[in-house]
UniProtKB/TrEMBL annotation:
Its EC number is 1.1.1.100. The active site is at residue 140. SMART domains: PKS_KR. It comes from the Bacteria. This is 3-oxoacyl-[acyl-carrier-protein] reductase. Pathway: Lipid metabolism; fatty acid biosynthesis. Keywords: Fatty acid biosynthesis, Fatty acid metabolism, Lipid biosynthesis, Lipid metabolism, NADP, Oxidoreductase. GO terms for molecular function: 3-oxoacyl-[acyl-carrier-protein] reductase (NADPH) activity; NAD binding. Signal peptide: none annotated. Belongs to the short-chain dehydrogenases/reductases (SDR) family. The keyword rRNA processing does not apply.
Length: 234
């Protein structure tokens, strides 16, 4: 069955892998992107999720072409790493506004159609950093931890309407962001991972697609770690 799927930040990395996984399964996939050229093969809508008006406009375009969003993957996010001593108010608030409040905006707008249809799948992309913490990433970790409380509250609020809300918490993933690290840093990170390697974006996407499937209809409020064992016990 072809569903209307939206992946925010779907133009690269994990988001692009997720979008491709749903498209390969036959779903109608829309992605949002903020800058650069979007990949071919999707309904690509330019949207800055920190701007409520742009979020509303994006949904109108998607609904017009694909129908109401039935599966939402809130993936868009940014980092502004800095030690607390040097972290500015803007460094902190910008990351929170994009990663956490941005997720609130896109979920709230999707929820309108899901409530009407009495069904829906929402998957939020958090991070192992939100569970473990990471020096120099207090803003990012706070935003990603916030997604867990947000998702679990919504799971309780929306469950009776057959809407599931779950979280995927990736560890170190082989993307442009991690490839920008020097070899010494990459080796240091890998040493912390029991499986001794980075994840491929497709491995994150597989878990996301499962949570949006019929097989996962009785899973809600869950945090699924896809981190090679890095965050074990958290």
């Amino acid at each position: 069955m072809s569903r209307s799927v939206l992946v925010t930040g779907g133009n690269r990395g994990i988001g692009l892998a997720v979008a491709r996984a749903f498209a390969d399964a036959g779903d109608k996939v829309a992605i949002t992107y903020r800058s650069g050229e979007p990949p071919a093969g999707f309904l690509a809508v330019k949207c800055d999720i920190t701007e409520p008006e742009q979020v509303e406009q994006a949904y109108k375009e998607i609904e017009e072409k694909h129908g109401p969003v039935e599966v939402l993957v809130a993936n868009a996010g940014i980092t502004r790493d800095q030690l607390l001593m040097r972290m500015t108010e803007e460094d902190f608030s910008t990351v929170l506004d994009t990663n956490l409040t941005g997720a609130f905006r896109v979920v709230k707008r999707a929820n309108r159609g899901m409530l009407r249809a009495r069904k829906g799948r929402i998957v939020l992309i958090s991070s192992v950093v939100g569970l473990l913490g990471s020096a120099g990433q207090a803003n990012y970790a706070a935003s990603k931890a916030g997604l867990v409380g947000f998702a679990r509250s919504l799971a309780r609020e929306l469950g009776s309407r057959n809407i599931t809300v779950n979280v995927v918490a990736p560890g170190f993933v082989d993307t442009d962001m991690t490839r920008a690290l020097d070899e010494k840093q990459r080796e240091a990170y890998v040493k912390q991972v029991p499986l001794a390697r980075y994840a491929q974006p497709e491995e994150i996407a597989a878990s996301v697609r499962f949570l949006a499937s019929e097989e996962a209809a009785y899973i809600t409020g869950a945090v699924i770690p896809v981190d090679g064992g890095l965050g074990m016990g958290h």
